[in-house]
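Suppose you are handed a protein chain with no further information: no name, no annotation, nothing but its sequence. What can you learn? This example shows the usual starting point.
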Amino acid sequence: QVYLRESGGGLVQAGGSLSLSCTASGRTFKSYSVSVGWFRQAAGKEREFVARINADGIRTYYADYVKGRFTLSRDNAASTVYLQMDSLIPEDPAVYYCNRVDPSSTRALADWGQGTQVIVSS
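A reasonable first move is to predict its three-dimensional structure. Written in structure tokens, the prediction is:
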């Protein structure tokens, strides 16, 4: 079983950048092929899909509202997936979660962790 934990959230000005990390424990990325998705949930709203990176680290998929601003990468040796968020806008603040996902969809496969909070100041 792979357990994922988010980190890296914080306060950033609109137009700024922030990098989130999703680190695996238990079975590592080297021993367990896993696609990882990022999701977010703003206050009073439902959780929504943000982006996915497949186990090969090459195939990625982004929601339209973050395409061109957010970039996924992964370091399988470190069992970590990174979400680089640039040009942050007032619609981006939320609790961000990572989860195992189906490699061909946006469906989360595991229980949710605590997430990491992103706050964007104007």
